[in-house]
Amino acid sequence: MLKTTLAGLRAHKLRLILTSLAITLGVGFISGTFVLTDTIQAGFTQSFTAAADKVDVAVIPAKDEKRSQEGPLTVPMELLDRVKGVEGVAAAVGVGRERTALIGKDGKVVGSMVTTWGVPVVEGELNRTEIVTGRAPKAGNEAVLDESTAKTRGFTVGETITVLDVRQQKHRFTLVGLFKLGVDQELSHGGAVGYTSETFQRMAQPTGFREIDVLAKDGVSAETLRAAVAAAVGAKGEAITGQTLMEKMADGNGVEIDFITYGLLLFGAVAMLVAGLVIYNTFNILVAQRTREMALLRCIGSTRSQVFRSILLESAVVGLLASVAGLLLGLGLGAAAIQVINATGSPMPAGTVTLTVTSTAAGLLTGLVVTVVAALLPARAATGVAPIAALRTQVEENAFRSGVLRWVFTGLFLILGVGVTVAGITMPPGAGGLFTVAGGGVLVFFAVLIIGPVLVKPLSRLTGFLPAYLFGVPGRLAVDNSTRNPKRSATTTIALTIGVTLMTLISVVSASVQASSDARLDRQYPVDYVLMAIGDREATIPRSVAETLRTKPEFGTVVAFREHTRPVTTDNNSFVSVGTIVGPIKTIAQEGWTGDPGPDQAILSLGTAGKLGVKAGDTMEIKTRSGRMEKVTVSGTYDREKMPGSDVLLQESTFHRYYGATEDIRVVVKMTDGAAPEAARKVVESVIADLPTVQVSSTTEIRGEFNDSINNVLMVMAGLLGLAVLISLLGIANTLSLSVHERTRESALLRALGLTRPQLRVMLSLEAFVLGLIGALIGVVLGLVFGWAAVQTMQDKPIFQAAPLHIAAFIVLSGLAGVLASLLPARRAARASIVNSLASG
Amino acid sequence: MTLTDIHREAPPAVVARSLTKVYGQGDAAVHALRGVDVAFTTGAFTAIMGPSGSGKSTLMHCLAGLDTVTSGSVHIGDTVVTGLSDKELTMLRRDRIGFIFQAFNLLPTLSAEQNIRLPLDIAGRQADPALFDRVVDTVGLRDRLSHKPAELSGGQQQRVAVARALIGRPQVIFADEPTGNLDSRSGAEVLSFLRTSVRELQQTIVMVTHDPVAASYADRVVFLRDGLLVSDVHQPTPQIIHDTLMKLES
Question: Which chain regions cross the lipid bilayer (chain A) (predicted)?
């Protein structure tokens, strides 16, 4: 039997290739994911190990729940001297990190949300900064820049750069080198400027270190030294070995990699599911086609189980070959992805392409298991072939009747699915509801899968109406042919449905999120321009900006927001932000603003009031700058959805009394009616021209940026789902070519009766078109329904919006994709000789 | 003057001159037709007979424009078939030729009536309602028109095929073993319809068969052996046909 199976496989190479391609693509995607993440992981490990070799012991900030709320924890600076004095320490350096803003060539600080970091480049063995161009800074007027920022901002070695110190004073440095950011995620986010240790102290004026790195004397073990250092620092810091430090860093990065891995694997799983459906269908058709061959085997004495095993063996061979091909494809895909990542200057450390044994096995096994499992049912069907079938001349049409059981199961899954979905919708907004809805979606999908063969006929009538009308006989025949084997058509189209459903869902969800955010921005910012200070909490806008803007005739409303730079402790030990609003807030806060606070009164955001458990009329205490607890009366609440602001808003004079006359953190501006936007913008820009940290954006820009980022996500998701769609197209091509094979004589008859070659091709293309449309139609309906359900779980007052253009495009493209899939089989059918085809079979 | 004499005077519907057909090349070459000259009279029912491998099916395929010839020419009416493009051949088959095959004559997805009208539908032509009624009544399918082929007996299926061939009033109908798959009663029925259509509708029919009884329904039988026309019998009886065949095979 083994020989027969293998000979059969060799005899049908083309069929083998078509079948394999679906699995190859799926496995390729999955192993590509593994290659990518394995390589990144290896890069991280390499970098961490390199760093761990340099540091023997590190002192990191002691854990402190309360202080961590106020900002990043630090190691007190005085500990450095104490550590240096510990027996066995060869060297110790304090490593700090503060925001020192690099000013770009446009005169504004680099970065849109955060500025660049400032770091010291230490000398000696403990230096972990890797200079790639030029050299390390040696003098106080020298600095280095990370290569990625240098690249994107167009700075080269030898140029002069301007950097703001923590007090926002400008300093000029000669750029003497570029360095690698390495694996530090925090530094990667924003980029960094490196100085000599002394210059760093001057620029950043740190109040503590992020970390003290210690080098042991020869012959002193890391663990011994750690114990000694721990004794010296006591409770003010935590001493760990270099190894532990690197493990901690690796953990932090590992989470991100896991996130990428699982995200990509999810798409891989969808692709494999679709591939499984395609394989299932292919083997079903193969078994049907080889009825006579198998009956002959049974006639000459093969047992049922031998037939079963032969089919399974065939699937195993196909699965294995396809998986190996997929693995190679995955290596290529992964390598390409790494190239792209490197080219975009992303901080992922990617060296040589790596694929671990586990990942290889996982990829191969997935492909093999999916193929064999998909072939199980067809193989079982093959055992039902009676030996007498060998003697029949004509293959019977695969009649299909919808049995009671089918309806019962459909009903069961449908009721369950709808129930779960409704439960998900009624849950409070959040991830729980979303996952519940997803579960409901899967159940409903099963219902559709079961009832699919029943749906195919009416749907083909619906989608085939126009083709049948437009294309005459070929059109009508195509519509009829599309439902000749409802089970086969259903499986073929459902494979496409999966991709279309998910694409529609994502389109609906993103359109809805966009609509909701637009609506919120409309409510929140009925203003024209927003001025913000870029940088850390200390970044502010001088009050003069708002004052100058108020004198300009272009602007009717100028509102300034101020906020204490540190979180404020309340009487029940919570932390809140406290601020004030200066200007006619009422004119921009349309609704939900109950009135300005009076002296010693506070207005709370709804969320804060809930967290603190207070309501209007209650009193609460807040800690002032001088450390005293002061009592304020809650006079009202406001909705932060509708107006951005601090947790606690005080009257201007009260705020100044408690927290000092701070600068503004945000200024919003509304134009007077009739002012020209271009002129108004120029006025704003001239006012802030000398303030590099202040950036202006129009609300249209804010909206545009947000929409851009949503669209980017949509594009990436669509691209990833494209794979599933591609595989389902292979399925359509496969089904169609096998159908063409089955109907060789029929096609020949039509050609003899006067159907031209183009007409025959059109007929087959239309059949695929109809199949594509059916798949898309089901997918769009499912996607709309579950997109709606998903949106319900996301917000309190969700806005549901579908992008009709997207959806129309999905449907049309699915139809056209079907046509594309039909081209080769149709070509083959049209070329066949009439005489030979009539004689075949 | 006999009927045969009238036919001899009418212009031929199909003419083949020095027809040869070679499959393959070199040593493997098979000479299926070695130079056949034959004319099929308009309004006559002609049978082509011969032992297996004599080239009778090849001759029919070449005459009907289903297969290309190696040399020689085929005329249908005043059209030279040999040398037409695939599209022109398709149009010729669609508009001027009817076909009845041994099996798989019908499209399983279409009803009997749709199958009958199929060639006209492909051409975008309307069936002459009077002719449609007449043909349907002739083959006795009135009450079976809405049935799918799977719901019809083998004889009924072949009658549908006959009706389909007749409905377009083609210049010639080619029938390839039309009764090969039928029991003798159904076969006799189908052959009677063919003969009736020749008598009543002046339809030209060329039929390939190896069955002497079937051939005896024809006005004339031509015999092929090894790719050559070897005998031509008018007004045949089963006995004459049988004897001729025995002689050819010996």
Answer: 16-36, 259-287, 308-341, 361-383, 404-427, 433-456, 494-513, 713-741, 762-791, 803-824
